Amino acid sequence: MNTEPKIRVGILNESEVSFRLCGNYKTVHGNISSGEYIARTDNNGIVVSCADNKKILLNSYDILEPSDEKNSFFELTDVTIGVEFHWQRKENQKFKGALQFIIENEKITAVNIIGVEDYLICVISAEMSATSSMELLKAHAVISRGWLLAQIKKSEKINENKTVYKSITETETEYIRWWDREDHTCFDVCADDHCQRYQGITRANTAYVIDAVEATRGLALTADGKICDARFSKSCGGVMEKFENTWEPVEHSYLQGFADTDDEKAIDLTIEENANKWIYSAPASFCNTNDKTILSQVLNDYDQETCDFYRWKVQYTQAEISELAYRRSGFDFGEIIDIIPIKRGTSGRIIKLKIIGTKLVKIIGKELMIRRTFSNTHLYSSAFVVEKSNEQNGIPQVFTFIGAGWGHGVGLCQIGAAVMGAKGYDYIKILAHYFPNSKLEKLY
Predict the structure, then answer these.
(1) So where are the chain's domains?
(2) Cα-to-chain-centroid distance, residue 247
């Protein structure tokens, strides 16, 4: 890889897309001037209409290229961010680069085509505050770049081998699922938390962020001759999780389980008794902080609506939890009698969970499936213990979840890395802590 690649980012998928062009754009059919437009599907493809009812017919391979790439941008209306998370909302977003419309599932997907480095500036600004320490910003630029390039390589390999990517295994007693690459076949990555938060130039892109991306231009982590699939989450909760416990059953030497501390000595949280004691406590770790100055570096305005993430509590009545489990998993358990951890990962996150109901007994996994099943959005993590109370006729009426961490816990812990930056660690040491057995390499 000698030159900076361009990537295709899926922004939104709707029955119609309202957008505004700020600057002149060109297609194979001619020029499109500044103004407000609506894109809809019809039998012939995609029709773009403007205020004077003039219509332009586009195909899925047509691309709207800015005539002046530096000064032009386009704005999309009502983009959903935080899909199925507790901060989900809609907002208008502005983007540099080219715009393409494709048809997926009889709807229109708006795709932004942009260079990797410009994409990264927007990702860093969306994932955390633009006022973060320079070392944290540099570390995040490296892993965001590496993750992106690794996903492109992975997609290329799947397409070359013409293999069907499977992320579900199901038997009569188990339903195991993870979410990863199978969701995106028509573009490289999406713009939401499923991949990396990418909100265009809507968030403030300060010179500080631009400097961090430029200082690490082309740099990524590699291991065993491949670009590292560098993952990150908000708070590991004190101990890292292994990649294979969250996604596909592939082991990566640089995504292992260890304590988020200087000495990196971790208790074995795969043992249920140890996990229980650890979750009920709040051991020292890099990400165990209430320092609002440090937290504001990682948590944007809507993230800061969450106060308890290192350790948290959620409570449900029997009616609430049985309805949730049915609606969110698709399995009718009836009334919930018990929730039993079957297998935990290195971070204490539950990988397999048995749900015992009056109608059905089933084991579910992996961690995101578990988090989705017991929340209208997502539980903060699957590292939890469950307390049952107010039993009536052998059926608990109240379930209390006591949990640890925010997110999957694999790779870089954003809050932990922010604390490391505040303590004076440079970005190379931060990366070495969270991604052992890896090295920095300049790819272009």
Answers:
(1) 239-284+311-404
(2) 13
